[in-house]
Amino acid sequence: xxxxxxxxxxxxxxxxxxxxxxxxxxxxxxxxxxxxxxxxxxxxxxxxxxxxxxxxxxxxxxxxxxxxxxxxxxxxxxxxxxxxxxxxxxxxxxxxxxxxxxxxxxxxxxxxxxxxxxxxxxxxxxxxxxxxxxxxxxxxxxxxxxxxxxxxxxxxxxxxxxxxxxxxxxxxxxxxxxxxxxxxxxxxxxxxxxxxxxxxxxxxxxxxxxxxxxxxxxxxxxxxxxxxxxxxxxxxxxxxxxxxxxxxxxxxxxxxxxxxxxxxxxxxxxxxxxxxxxxxxxxxxxxxxxxxxxxxxxxxxxxxxxxxxxxxxxxxxxxxxxxxxxxxxxxxxxxxxxxxxxxxxxxxxxxxxxxxxxxxxxxxxxxxxxxxxxxxxxxxxxxxxxxxxxxxxxxxxxxxxxxxxxxxxxxxxxxxxxxxxxxxxxxxxxx
Length: 431
Prior knowledge:
two-stranded antiparallel sheet; mainly alpha
């Protein structure tokens, strides 16, 4: 920058300021702009994808993101319009066809840009958008299953097959290694996303759902959530996948399945009960214990809190009587939670060998055997306590002489145990 100052006779001061930007280099001009916090060309470069200073043509622009947002918005608007008119099937089928076409255009464009190696930023945007689309985030297939069960089942099966193929293409193109656990989560999320509306429509029809179906689906959702957290929290998985798209491929289908489960409650006017969330809390507790171990401070207490809250939320579930011939069994979400908790905490104990868990999982199975609700369990525990108290009184010595004889007998028994343990060491054993 060059400035000339001129003093005139009347004492005033005039300035002839001339900015010679042309004489400056591009680097110096950019340095001056960054110093002033002003970059007048940044907005233009963002919208036109013109490479910025020092880049190699790998910038990003908002148009692909805007296209995805507009597509989702359009799908939501059409869904809202046709939801109140269930007899009109044509708009829903047309929307599914349009969405399929858009999905393949997004994926094809992403593959093309990735192979050109000149628009990697945009290619990642398109691949991420393709992952969001294959999970039916716009609930288009959900609406089709509600409108027509046969078409919903057919298009849902096709969407599952195509979705798995797209996952294979995206992972190979992006160089993502999901591993067995990652693939299990991703495929399970896609299958549950498209199968859940069809199953609800087939079982519930146009009316309400049976009481057991939401409970069973929330157990499936809890297993999916726990498996997802277990996969994405693994250190080896993080070492293999540094890109954010790997997490999106695993988390997005699982999240979409949970959203479709919530949508099922809304469609069929089913209330989400605390007992429905109890298996989710159990899964969180188990994953925290497996990943952190019982010795870790905050994860340990968080796992314990999830376990206790899950236990008491499960206690609010309904109790049903299952009959097989003359055999009757009371079944409830509480008893199912205790059985599952005993198995899960038993597996964690087997891996960690922690004393607190050794006390937890047998207790869970014992309580499950005693009853199907806390009231029944407490009643039977009171009865057992009274019976054991009466039996103990009959067995225990009743006088000082008999107590002395019993203690002497225990002394001989302890002496025999000590001799047996010492004899097992052998002559060359440790002293």
